[in-house]
Amino acid sequence: MERFTTTVAAGPRGHLAIPVPFDPDTVWGRKDRHLVGGTVNGIRVRGEVAAHGTEAAAGTEAGTAAGARLLVGPAWLRDCGVAAGDTVTVELLPEGPQRADLADDLAAALAADPAAGAFFDSLAQFYRRAYLRWIDATKRHPEQRPARIAEVVALLAAGHKERPKP
Question: Which string of DSSP letters, residue by residue, matches 100-114?
Fold first, then answer.
């Protein structure tokens, strides 16, 4: 978990931009999207940490520092009491299972297919956990595990968020 204090800036379309004082690619590993959970002044928050200038962070007010940001929307802001210019304490950690948490055989399979690995990393935790549950359901029949891993890697490489229903 990363803990820091920062000053909130105005963001696009009624959002607030919470500057992230570290490079998420360095801390959490290179990904196209960093889906995170945590707290801002003790209030739970979920979102995406994106580099300033990417689609998710585009439109941030002029004059703010470049770098990664967590954008929070009007629905979250309604009850939190945070406004632009406030100093907040933030705790963030990546959501869901990460590559370092995976079994060695699955991690190796994802590393061997960069497209599948990158797509896995970009998925919301719900989809990642569903794939992992399906693979882990082979405990009674461990001989099925390599075939399931191969199927998951093929599905991920093809851009499927979830396994087709049988």
Answer: GGS-HHHHHHHHH-H
Tens of pLDDT, residues 108-132:
999 999 999 989 988 888 899 999 9
Residue 53 near residue 66 (C-beta atoms within 8 A): yes
- Report DSSP letters for 69-119, one per residue: EEEE-HHHHHHH---TT-EEEEEEEE-S--GGGS-HHHHHHHHH-HHHHHH
Q: How many Å apart are CA 107 and CA 86, to the nearest integer?
A: 41
DSSP-based three-state secondary structure for 68? strand
pLDDT at 57 over 80: no
Average pLDDT over residues 28-38: 83
Domains of the chain with CATH codes: 2-94 (2.40.30.100), 99-157 (no CATH)
